[in-house]
Write a structure and sequence with these properties.
The chain has 202 residues and is of the alpha/beta class. It is built from 6 helices and 7 strands. Helix 3 links the parallel strand 1 and strand 2. It starts with 7 loop residues before the first helix and ends in a 7-residue tail after the last strand. The protein has a 7-stranded mixed sheet, with helices on both faces. Bound molecules: S-adenosylmethionine.
């Protein structure tokens, strides 16, 4: 997925030696919501080829940890703070494998997960919802009180109900479309801050 279309962000990523144009999305979200800090423990779901990880690694520094999980391997990231895990988030063993590499509670989690598309709309939408729901389960089990979760969602049926699910356990949930996200793409990001597993009245 890395450098697949030659727009301004693609050229900028090439020029600056970034792994993917996706880097600019997390950079922009961070400059708006100020989520990353030195020493944090961060989990990234759907992290290959590692563009976001490179950015987060700089922000959390060597006293922090950023674990990137993906179906594909991710090479050559600075360690510390980076660790990687080749895994499927839908695999029941994955939670234990995450914990072995980054002990909870976590300060934050990010998900840029995108299902492999089949071209069959109903199947793609069902897959997309399945990985999102599982991402939220994994994150809720590991996030510290006050922690944050940033995740990519595709606009459509899933968005409203997923947003409502987040509002049940985060004090603030904001929709954001970074400039680096293509206008033609239905992707949008939900930025949820102030994790509190006890909020449930909304
Ligand atoms: C848009 S890319 C992530 C880009 C990344 N944030 C970056 O900056 O380089 C989405 C990733 O989600 C991964 N993915 C999709 N389904 C997955 C699953 N079930 N388990 C783990 N990773 C998955 C894909 O392999 C793909 O690498």
């Amino acid at each position: 997925m890395a450098f697949n279309r030659q727009d301004g962000y693609y050229r900028q990523a090439k020029r600056e030696g970034k792994r993917s144009r996706a880097t600019y999305k997390i950079e922009e979200l961070d400059s708006r919501f100020k989520v990353f800090k030195k020493g944090q423990k961060i989990l990234e779901l759907g992290a290959a080829p590692g563009g976001w990880m490179e950015y987060i690694a700089k922000r959390v520094g060597t006293s922090g940890v950023v674990l990137g999980l993906d179906l594909q391997s991710i090479a050559d990231l600075p360690a510390p703070p980076c660790k990687t895990l080749v895994a499927d988030i839908l695999d029941p063993e994955t939670g234990a494998r995450i914990d072995a590499l980054i002990a909870p509670p976590l300060d934050g989690a990010v998900s840029d997960l995108a299902p492999n598309l089949t071209g069959i709309k109903a199947t793609d939408q069902a897959n997309s919802i399945a990985i999102l729901e599982q991402a939220l389960i994994l994150v809720k089990e590991r996030l510290a009180d006050g922690g944050f979760f940033i995740c990519k969602v595709f606009q459509g049926n899933e968005l409203k109900s997923f947003q409502l699910q987040l509002k049940k356990c985060f004090s603030k949930v904001t929709l954001a479309k970074p400039k680096a996200s293509r206008k033609t793409s239905t992707e949008i990001y939900l930025v949820a801050t102030g994790y509190d597993g006890n909020i449930s009245s909304q």
